Amino acid sequence: MVSPRVPDLDSLALLLEIARTGSLGRAAAAHGISQPAVSARVRTMEGLVGVPLVARTARGSTLTPAGVLVAGWARDVLAAAEVLDAGITSLRASDEQRLRVGASMTVAEHLLPRWLVRLAAERPLTEVSLEAMNSSQVALAVLAGRVDLGFVEGPDVPDGLADEVVAHDRLVVVVAPGHPWVRRRRVDAAELAATRLVQREPTSGTRGALEAALAAYAPMAAPVLELSTTSAVSGAAAAGAGPAVLSRLAVGDDLDRGRLVEVATTGVDLTRVLRAVWVPGRRPSPPARDLLRIATTPPVRSRR
Question: Residues in domain HTH lysR-type (predicted)?
């Protein structure tokens, strides 16, 4: 505990300035304050220490013998404070130049690249590491402190995390061009739930969102294939393994090229939200806050 007799750092710095310049007025100018304010600081210091520190004469101001002793000790205190300040600045600079992000496959592959380009333009010195994983793994990484900010998909916010919606997405039913559903053009929710689909793993946000949307028809049919990446699921569906339900963001190119065909659905809402997550009470770093702002700010579209 600091003794109540110890002056604050600014007052100690003023004492050294008086010793250097021999003038209360010049010390005041050096610190950007008025001379009466310096005089008040000196009186406060003398009250704390209990002895006179500055002798005022017509030719200027000098330190008393006690003031010389206090000034000598003050130099060591101020030097230590500068070391502390430099260390804190270094810690903050390191924190502001590193950002660890965990994201679900959909966000990592189709949204984060654009956001990170904007972040790099704002923070060119920030080093970003991105780990793509399923939503459950993202939540665990955020809770464990392995990443500063997470992005998840799925109907629910993982326990113990604060969240903010960053985007909306839509799941679509896709099949190979030769699949019988192509001729029908639509499938209802009950048939979709009863059909063996090519699926992601159970902890995937995409699968969780689909199961939540079809909860009225549970249990769903067992997957015909269970694969750990979106690209593997879309590839298997395109090869004819069976229908799949994936993010519209993830299969846009395949639909444009005719590799997959979208089949409309009835009786089920397949829209969903994508969220940023972090630990409440654990303040996100400045780069994490900037990335969250970018993710929740729609891009400016140029006018032609």
Answer: 7-64
